[in-house]
Fold:
Amino acid sequence: MPDLRSEPAPTSEAVTNNIRVEVIARHAPENSQQGEFVFQYTVRITNQGTQPVQLRSRYWIITDALDHVEEVRGPGVVGEQPTLAPGQAFKYSSWCPLKTPTGTMRGTYQMVGADGAEFDVEIATFALRARYTIH
Structure:
């Protein structure tokens, strides 16, 4: 019997260089259609450091239940490149369509500090699961 604890949850949390990234995902049946499962995910990025940082770009690795991998890169998030002062958080929601009822997402944000140093921040793996899916 598989160890169900090894399955990723529809939530994740990671801290890299004093930047906390928290994610929660849900299936959005109201936006899904035959052959496409749409998932909404909400991300909160919190600067727990002592210097401001700016989110410059994103890199997502999206894997469906058939192990099809899609990589998505782009500037900012939801059309923004937010600067976070110490203690400040930025929250946004976005969407991910899959051809299967389950999958995972993970990735990184590319940030720049006040000193101009660039660094990556981890987005820990989280599950995309349609309701009542048994596997």
Q: What stands out?
A: The mean pLDDT is 92.
